[in-house]
Amino acid sequence: MALLLRSLQCASSPGAMSVSRSAAFLRLAKPEGAAMGICTHQDFSAMSSCSFYSSLAFGALHSSSSSSSRDNSRGGVVSKKKKAVLRPCSSYRVVVRGAASSSADVAGECGDSGGREEHEPRKMFTVTTPLYYANAAPHMGSAYPTIAADALARFQRLQGREVFFITGTDEHGEKIALSAATKGRAPKEHCDLVAAEYQALWNDLSIAYDRFVRTTEANHENLVSEFYNRVEANGDIYQAKYEGHYCINCEEYKDEKELIEDHCCPIHRKTCELRKEDNYFFALSKYQQPLEELLSLNPNFVRPSFRMNEVQGWVKEGLRDFSISRAAVEWGIPVPSDPKQTIYVWFDALLGYVSALLGDGKEPNIANAIQKGWPASVHIIGKDILRFHAVYWPAMLMSAGLPLPEAVFGHGFLTKDGLKMGKSLGNTIEPRDLLSRFGVDAVRYYFLKEIEFGKDGDFSEERFINIVNANLANTIGNLLNRTLGLLKKNCNATVLFDSASIPENNSLRKVTTESVERAREGYSQLDFSSSCDVILNIASAGNVYMNDRTPWSLFKQGGLASNEASQDLTAVLEAVRILAVALSPVIPELCSRIYSQLGYSKADFESLSWVDTQWGGLRAGQVMANAQPIFKKLEELEPQESNTESMKGSGKSVDHQFKQKSAPVTASIEL
Question: Would you say the C-alpha torsion 220, 211, 104, 452 has a positive or negative sign?
Fold first, then answer.
């Protein structure tokens, strides 16, 4: 065996035998009547001494003997069966687009794939959510990243960018087939119902997506088959036997060291099944060095930075090949070369980001799909699927000769009682319940403002109510209401001065200008919490300004003092106008109501750009609408014990019901 390895060490890549660089030895499958073979660490080191770039001929080496390696899929034993195949492939290069760029592009020209398609300079900003698993109805854990992606898309549109916002559902796999069966439905019927629930919820949450993609669409299935064929033609797919512990909820084999007591998945807290299958594998190990270079040269490819550290740790441990087919799962896309097997749900679902870009009437192929909008500007995903997006997905794209996404942003978990919310755990917060009780503005604002995007955040209903009441009703709402009241009483609801006439050294103007720039920086970094904080500072400064200037007293004095008061109201209303533009990515409906009360039309609001955050937009002669509460304060109702039974299954709390009230109320919540 040692002699065989040494004779091959310059004929293949270091990762060609799908071994882990961190492994001390390779377990070999035992042929009939043979003793178990051992590959020593010294032999493996000798083979690994070949540079990834030193040979024009490298590929997944499939031993004609029954050799085996650790799988990929992160735990278990792989026994390879096919003969050795060496596919030519030129080196990959990692290109950083400019010194200040956070973008990464890995170009590959791989044998039969025909090389990377040529693109015009890309102007479109493409943002994606995960494609949500359609095993059950959406919960707040899936709504959360979608709200964030929507806010980012709205901000980029304000910046003048052409935006393509992709969301959708991942509809294949064992878990979906099981969920459908328990409800007495066919898998497609089940997926149709769940996808409709997602779309309805996104509408209720004011999610302005451009494309809702479903992985059961015929066009998507065509692209997946083409992609599989590309990767296979590049020598990166081989057949092997695999044995390991499988989590149905994760749709993933788990490494032994990841499992907790009783071989339970650490995320879903359910026992993983020990399975042995004959599957097809993707040669992830072949892309060890390109991925290391990608992560090294593009520090913003994975964000936040602590997520990048996690990904680099995984890669440094050594990449292992992973199974991309399932022999026992019928609900999926058939493997093109072996219809008895279906393509692994992740190898299928990730292509949804590409198939979503296919224009109407276009022939369903990859070349047409990536003509506009690819590579994606950012994938927004949960940290639990970071490995798939930051390790597997880039390597898959390299193999197919396609450009990589510019960035992957891994957000944290929403937790309840310290555990990740999830349908499988049965501890979800139902977004429809929150929407019916508190409204879309409160839900969007709280989750983006109060939870730092990227980190875990624990939901507290008491804090939810206190925050939205204090920020939206008291700080912003009362400022607008009191200012419009004074304007109507003393100026016939008409602005008497151009806001541009307010001196640049005016304290409120300075705070507003500085806050807007900081908010822009926050949005650009997906730091929605800090953007909300600095925009709220504008309203806080406006309230302080009103209290310091006391325009109600100045109006009583008349003459020049009355003119000063009118200018003060102009300054405050201009600050509120700018606040409405800057906060519109987070709470568009509330900001639209603000703009309406400032005398603007719906068309005016919908045509806004970030330029409108510059001071000077409010002009003399602008007539304001009558003051109305823009956010009605939340008030707790007494528990209704007599209705407990009737409310079960209604999606509403059986302990407390809430209403909204326009008058200031101090709520005392006991949870």
Answer: negative
What are the tens digits of pLDDT across the range 474-516? 999 999 999 999 999 999 999 999 999 999 999 999 999 999 9
Entry pTM:
0.78
Q: What phi, psi does 663 have (nearest 5°)? A: -75, 150
What is residue 366's DSSP assignment? H
Q: Which parts of 283-398 are beta strand (E)?
A: 302-303, 322-323, 325-326, 334-335, 338-343, 378-382
Q: What's the DSSP call for residue 307?
A: H
**Amino acid at site 386:** L
Contact 162, 121 (CB under 8 A): no
CA 569 remoteness from chain centre: 41
Contact by Cβ (8 Å): 442, 472: yes
Cα 146 to Cα 203: distance, rounded to the nearest angstrom: 11
Beta strands in 345-446 (DSSP E): 378-382, 408-411, 414-416, 419-420
Cα 497 to the chain's mean position, in Å? 45
CA distance 325 to 376: 26
Distance CA 566, CA 625 (A): 17
Structure tokens at 399: 């193999």
Spell out where 160-311 has E strands. Answer: 163-170, 211-214, 237-247, 252-254, 273-282, 302-303
Nearest to 283 by CA among 314, 237, 242: 237
pLDDT per residue over 342-394, tens digit each? Answer: 999 999 999 999 999 998 889 999 999 999 999 999 999 999 999 999 999 99
With contact defined as beta carbons under 8 Å apart, do 165 and 208 qualify?
A: yes
Pairing of strands 338-343, 325-326: antiparallel
